[in-house]
Amino acid sequence: MKLKDDFFKVNDFCETATGMDYIIELNPEHIIFQAHFPENPITPGVCLVQIVKELSIELLGRNLFLKKLNNVKFLNVINPIENKEVMLSITIASEGEDAHKINTVVYNHNQQFAKLSMLFINN
Asked: In 3D, which of 112, 101, 22 has the Cα closest to residue 67?
């Protein structure tokens, strides 16, 4: 399920030496938030993983398959009403032609929400 332009949209981005920084806006009216959870929406961790995958696919210009979650830490919940806009700092380190180690920090001006370290392979 593709989340971009429905569950979230990219408001801004800036290239870095090792990847890209994004500002994304979550859609608090999305059906996922109606189920997770009514009247107290929380962004599911699996959606954060999918957001990173979709942004990495665009950044690398190739289809990716998630091979391994190396280290994932959910530090604070993201309520899309209280934190409609969040930032993602994505760092990519290619491991050969077909593998990419992608580290991401999800945060806003006040707190960190998650740190994700994943291994993707070309699909």
From this structure: 101
Query: Based on the structure, what is the number of domains in the chain?
Result: 1
pTM of the model: 0.96
Give pLDDT, residue 83: 96
CATH number for position 84? 3.10.129.10
**Which helix (H) or strand (E) element contains residue 57?**
helix 45-60
The DSSP line for 3-55 is: -BTTTEEEEEEEE-SSEEEEEEEE-TTSHHHHHS-TTS----HHHHHHHHHHH
Confidence band of 28 (pLDDT split at 50, 70, 90): very high
Residue spans of beta strands (DSSP E) within 83-122: 85-94, 99-107, 112-122
| Structural domain for 87, as ranges | 8-95+110-122
pLDDT tens per residue, range 61-74: 999 999 999 999 99
